[in-house]
């Protein structure tokens, strides 16, 4: 699908097309269509309206979002203490690197007076830097100016500044030209190849990990079987929300966001994006 967008010269339309295919847009359209049908197909019109409203409610529930995450995407588990110890021992060989994927940036955060990372990017960067400190592995950050942004500094430039100034842990590498996950993978592997890196510890959110891992493994295979780096998933954002069972079935911003992200990733996997 990415290749088709590029061939047609409409790759910048990806965020718009994705937004139209994800909740709430289709459910709002079906609600309006059902309401219009009531005048001439009363029974069917009311069924469509009721079904649309129920689906809209469910799409905003934390319980539904977490269920979809588990059963549609099957994200890997978090790194265990034993696995982190293994990575620490492997760090001495100098063949392993941590790669953190960008998750959005703000061209200007007025409270700081300069650009900033979106919360998802900050969470990934924090974990990647923590993992680098615990294991001694060098850290890379991948993120340019995505299709949905109007300009400003790249995510990687912002991440490099935050890592050095606020966490006191400068990045070893930063890749600032990628616009989506596939380009994250292709450009990151190309950037790290001259350093002799044969294993990548991939840091991104759990809902994004299946697609990110697929893209990185595809990019690694294109390098060649003999020199393809191994991909180790290191997901973040696996904690379940601590709320009562009743609240889990009441619409919320967090529930809607999770459901939407899971469906977005599933759409990306199906479309090969």
Q: What does the model show?
A:
With 273 residues, the chain is α/β, with parallel strands linked by helices. 53% of the residues lie in helices and 13% in strands. A five-stranded parallel β-sheet has the order 5-4-1-6-7, with helices on both faces. It has a two-stranded antiparallel sheet with strand order 2-3. Helix 8 links the parallel strand 4 and strand 5. The mean pLDDT is 91.
Short characterization:
With 273 residues, the chain is α/β, with parallel strands linked by helices. It has 12 helices and 7 strands. The chain has helices at residues 2-8, 14-21, 25-37, 42-59, 62-73, 81-90, 119-135, 155-165, 181-192, 209-223, 245-248, 253-271; strands spanning 96-101, 105-109, 114-117, 139-142, 173-175, 199-205, 230-236.
Summary tags:
five-stranded parallel β-sheet; 273 residues; alpha/beta; elongated; two-stranded antiparallel sheet
Q: What is the strand content?
A: 5-15%
- The total strand number stands at 7
* Quaternary assembly: single chain
Instruction: Please work out how many helical segments DSSP would assign.
Output: 12
* Percent range of helical residues: 40-55%
Give the end-to-end Cα distance, rounded to a whole number of Å: 6 Å
The major beta sheet can be summarized as:
5 strands, parallel
Global geometry: elongated
Radius of gyration: 21 Å
State the secondary-structure class.
Answer: alpha/beta
Q: Give, in order, the helices and strands.
A: HHHHHHEEEHEHEHEHEHH
Mean pLDDT value: 91
User: Which spans of ≥5 residues are poorly predicted at pLDDT below 50?
Assistant: none
């Amino acid at each position: 699908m990415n290749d088709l967008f590029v061939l047609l010269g409409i790759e910048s339309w990806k965020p718009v097309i994705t937004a139209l295919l994800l909740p709430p847009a289709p459910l709002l359209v079906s609600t309006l269509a059902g309401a219009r049908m009531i005048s001439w197909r009363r029974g069917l019109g009311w069924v469509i309206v009721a079904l649309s409203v129920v689906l809209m409610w469910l799409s905003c529930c934390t319980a539904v979002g977490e269920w979809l995450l588990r059963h549609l995407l099957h994200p890997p588990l978090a790194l265990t203490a034993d696995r982190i110890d293994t990575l620490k021992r492997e760090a001495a060989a100098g063949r392993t690197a941590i790669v953190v994927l960008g998750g959005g940036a703000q061209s200007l955060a007025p409270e700081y007076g300069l650009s900033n990372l979106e919360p998802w990017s900050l969470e990934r960067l924090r974990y990647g830097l923590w993992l680098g400190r615990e294991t001694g592995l060098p850290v890379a950050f991948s993120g340019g100016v995505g299709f949905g942004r109007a300009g400003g500094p790249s995510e990687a430039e912002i991440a490099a500044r935050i890592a050095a100034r606020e966490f006191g842990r400068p990045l070893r590498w930063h890749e600032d030209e990628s616009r989506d996950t596939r380009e994250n993978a292709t450009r990151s592997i190309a950037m790290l190849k001259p350093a002799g890196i044969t294993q990548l510890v991939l840091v991104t959110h759990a809902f994004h990990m299946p697609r990110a891992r697929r893209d990185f493994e595809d990019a690694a295979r294109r390098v060649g079987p003999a020199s393809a780096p191994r991909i180790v998933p290191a997901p973040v954002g696996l904690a379940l929300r601590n709320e009562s069972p009743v609240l889990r079935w009441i619409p919320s911003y967090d529930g809607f966001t999770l459901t939407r992200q899971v469906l977005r990733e599933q759409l990306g996997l199906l479309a090969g994006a």
